[in-house]
Specification:
CATH architecture of the largest domain: 3-Layer(bba) Sandwich
Oligomer: single chain
CATH topology of the largest domain: FAD/NAD(P)-binding domain
Shape: globular
CATH superfamily of the largest domain: FAD/NAD(P)-binding domain
CATH class of the largest domain: Alpha Beta
Length: about 400
């Protein structure tokens, strides 16, 4: 017979955000009883464990945003965590290149953002590019970001799990939330968990949970599939990451090159809208309910600015095939090998929040509250980089007053 379990804090979702919040809670008050309820059999199985592994520096985001604050802090903290935990860390930096005069202006705007955010970055002349990445090409200027690095998301996630458990935390696996009854969470297994405070950090599932509490109905989720292709570094011996100048109206950074910890080089990610938040293949991972939500989100986004939306989505769809990804990447690195040496890797899904009232993508982190519950509605990229300081922020600003 199932019984009621009582904890001080219940955290729903065992991704990097949930784990970071849990550890920040443990550090704030050692005697707290904290439990994480994860619907899968392991932690870090979805977005947290399927991202690129890039530890971003923090120069893409407006200085007023939570993303800018926590990405900059998270960059140094996540790298320190990797060193302290003896996790692999590739500190090779990245270049951001331009294809025309408009891109140069975008690079200059990124430098201004970097300065406002306190991020170390250099705008250099084209002739210096060979010192950093001789295989890349640019138009007139490029950016050099020395702080950008690479780690293994799954290794980081497992290390966070070990830290949480070693401090006395508890994780319940295969627990899918059904609903709340005041300060009690009811799960599909029949288990119930009583709490003083709860954090909804369920990633792609967070909005649906918030909706059960009457929160977040002004949003819908648009799941976006990020696919990669990879080859041996012997075929393309890059020194550093190579990115294109981002378009200011797109939340996606476009096709780029990422050397990996296992001597590979990846091209990606794509950003292809799909029907479900776990639709990693054509026929799996979505429901009729999710399909309806996705179509509402897509419709709202397109109606908000049809020309930009169609252009953005059309550009992403045009890069869906392996050959088109290689062709797009060749604009950054002319000697990119032919498609035959590349193979598809594991894809991830970014659940992009859409504001139905403004009819636009939500660009910053979003936190909402209902009685006793804190809802993390949007913590997409650079959520992984930002997780450790973001977790402290959630604890200090939203949770300590509830426990």
């Amino acid at each position: 017979m199932k019984k009621l379990l009582n904890y001080d804090v219940l955290i729903i979702g065992g991704g990097v955000i949930g784990l970071s919040i849990a550890i920040a809670l443990q550090k704030s008050q050692e005697k707290l009883k904290i439990v994480i309820a994860e619907k899968e059999e392991k932690v870090i199985l979805h977005a947290s464990g399927r991202n690129s592994g890039v530890i971003h520096a923090g120069f893409y985001y407006s200085s007023e945003s939570l993303k800018s604050k926590f990405c900059r802090l998270g960059n140094s903290e996540l790298k320190k965590f990797c060193r302290d935990q003896n996790l692999p860390l590739l500190e090779i930096g990245k270049v951001v290149v331009a294809k025309d005069e408009d891109d140069v202006k975008r690079l200059e705007a990124l430098v201004e953002r970097a300065q406002a955010n306190g991020v170390d970055i250099d705008l250099l002349e084209e002739g210096n590019l060979t010192k950093y990445e001789p295989m890349a090409k640019t138009y007139e200027k490029f950016l050099w970001s020395p702080a950008t690095a690479i780690a293994d998301p799954k290794e980081v996630g497992r290390a966070l799990e070990k830290v949480f458990l070693a401090r006395g935390g508890k994780i319940l696996f295969n627990e899918k939330l059904m609903h709340f009854q005041e300060n009690i969470a009811v799960f599909a297994s029949g288990n119930t968990v009583g709490f003083k405070a709860c954090v909804n950090s369920a990633g792609a599932g967070a909005l649906a949970i918030a909706n059960k509490c009457g929160i977040g109905r002004e949003f819908e989720l648009l799941p976006v599939l990020g696919g990669y292709i990879s080859t041996s570094k012997n075929n393309i011996p890059l020194r550093t990451m190579v990115y294109a100048a981002p378009h200011p109206l797109s939340p996606f950074l476009g096709i780029h090159f990422t050397p990996t910890l296992d001597n590979q080089v990846k091209i990606g990610p794509t950003a292809i809208p799909v029907l479900g938040s776990e639709q990693y293949s054509a026929m799996d991972g979505f429901s009729a309910q999710e399909m309806g939500s996705t179509l509402r989100a897509l419709n709202s986004y397109v109606l908000g600015d049809p020309i930009t939306a169609v252009k953005t989505l059309g550009n992403q769809l045009s890069q869906a095939s392996l050959r088109s990804m290689v062709n797009a990447a060749s604009d950054l690195v002319p000697n990119t090998p032919e498609p035959k040496v590349w193979s598809r890797g594991k894809a991830g899904i970014r659940s992009q929040l859409v504001d139905l009232n403004k009819r636009e993508f939500v660009q910053d982190f979003v936190i909402s509250e209902s009685p006793g519950i804190v809802h993390i509605l949007n913590a997409v990229s650079p959520g992984w980089t930002s997780a450790l300081p973001f977790g402290r922020y959630v604890v200090e600003e939203f949770l300590l007053s509830k426990i």
